[in-house]
Amino acid sequence: MAVVKVDKLARSVAEGPSLMTGAFPKQDWMDVPAVFKPGNYAYPTKPEKLKYLDSQQGVSFPNAREWNPEDDDWKLPENWKEIIIKGIADRLDRFRSLKIFMDCCVRCGACADKCHFFLGTGDPKNMPVLRAELLRSIYRQHFTKAGKILGKLAGGREMTYGVIKEWFMYAYQCTECRRCSVFCPYGIDTAEITMMLRELLHLLGIGINWAMEPVSNSNRTGNHMGLTPQAFKGNVDFLCEDIENLTGVKVNPTFNRKGAEVLFITPSADVFAEPGIFTCMGYLLLFEAIGLDYTWSTYASEGGNFGLFTSNEMMKKLNAKMYAEAERLGVKWILGGECGHMWRVVHQYMDTMNGPADFLEVPRSPITGTVFENAASTKMVHISEFTADLIKNGKLKLDKSRNAHVKATFHDSCNPARAMGLLDEPRYILDNVVEQWWEMPENTIREKTFCCGSGTALNTDEIMELRMRSGLPRANAVKYVQEKHDVNTLGCVCAIDRATLTTLMDYWVPSVQVAGLSELVGNALVIEGENRQELDEGLRTLV
Amino acid sequence: MELTEAFTEKRKEILSLWVERTLNSYTSPGFFKKAKDPFANPVGVNTSDALHSIYDLLLSNAEPEAYQKPLDTIVRIRAVQEITPSQAVAPLLELKWVVKQVLKSDRKTSSLLADLDNFDCEVDRIALIAFDIYTACREQVYRGRIRELKSGSYLLTDSACPSALLKEEQKSQSESN
Lengths: 543, 177
What we know:
Chain A has 543 residues and is mainly alpha-helical. Chain A is 46% helix and 5% strand. Chain A contains 23 helices and eight strands. Chain B is elongated, with a radius of gyration of 23 Å.
């Protein structure tokens, strides 16, 4: 047995700053290197996935290789520095927003304490201002007069191997949730800076598999999981059987049907993974109840667009497939399910990337006659807007007591809240389908909502601790309403939320389950001719 | 002055130093120490509240079960942060140093340093409860990982999919034959 060095132990306890609690040496941020160890990084992209993507039209993903973030040598191409500087120049030229974001920050610090990654880690490089500074310092050094002459004095720094590693660390400790930009007096969209960092890293073949494999699958078969059309349809059929067993209602969805009025697109996770499948059962019941003339597509079988977390071109390509399919099927408009970032792509990028979708009609609800002017250009309506309109016009028979087991609160999913302003429709739906629900504290909801901590393809298990600490601000607010009001259900409108908040709640607030709003609608729906069993837990009841 | 009296009188001073040193374990602790809104600053406020509760429980000679909630609050946070297991529970042991520091700096209380044996034992006891909680938290994180893998998401990374592993095994077997 080793001899215990009592004097050393005593000293570590007795002297400050504390060695025992692991106080960190305070250094200038530029001098603190990124250190990779198991648990603090997501696995790199598999070379075969990258090679496949690089072979596809309209996108470029060079330098596929095996590499390990923990190694000193990341096997970068020889001219990596040149590639990066050229990559920045190219993007500054193409995106005026980037140029403005690089120049206009006055480092007021309003964003600094608004990021859930900073709040969960205390790591200054997770302050949005400093995360942006990781790129801005290189921009200053190479693209501004002051930086070229004065270097570090003007806030510039050399582009080194260490900077690449730092970028990889912190571009993947940002979920592009855009909470920080709500507080920025200049409206700097820090998410777009993260997007640029990720794009630049892709020039060197640096990316994460949890983003790129879904991207590759979506490009190939139309959904993240790479489900074939048969498997996709099979899963939906399976859910239809469950619905019939539970409610006695026979639903008959159609697939790839030309001439349907509406094309319905939702995250593929709704079709195969709990608790999303209950949300999907809610959609199916709702459409049956109102007799909607709609079709699923087994090709545009994914609402999610991990291209947003990857590169501009990739996002554009994956978004285009939804519209190509709408055109092929000859539908009038698109109805979108409970997805998060799909709505950011549709509302903020689609129109200039692939729009306007002139071959479609301005969406008009065939049931209520409401015209969705807000979607006049994108031709795509959110299921919560659609459902709220049905309720408002008295087209749904809802029995709140069927949700008697639910004491809800509502998590504004980042993208629907901040990127499309979907704030009141979900609340209106909740008012009508559950007997009781409570808001979380004001600074954690609506535009100021806290991210689940696992967005932008960070919903992978190898970084579970990172997800738990970055999800703490969200969970902390849920815990408050759980303790105060005995809340047991966290409602949301995003597939990544449904999957990852479930794990987050299990760790921080174990008595709370996660449910898509359409699941709660499905629970409460009274449908003519139904033969509903006693469903103590709604559509989740095991019978 | 009696020890209990000193603990009550020095409560504010002890807690202030204890919270300060605990939050100093973060790289950039300024905000954690300053912001008082529990929803804007969950790490700082929860840590501070938990340390206050633990101290008051010590003062009132509470039963071990009573420590569970505040210890869980602080340890659950530290169990998923980038610190070593020992650092995760170290703040609790550090209370001993904090108390000695505060008591010896005042002439009225410095003589009490020799009477701290029982107090030290109590602190050790709560540190051991914290260690149990830490382990339970870590196990919960791993169970969460397993649950996610089993829930179907593994299809994304075929490495963990049993049928993919089986295929690989069959392939390597047929190659070796």
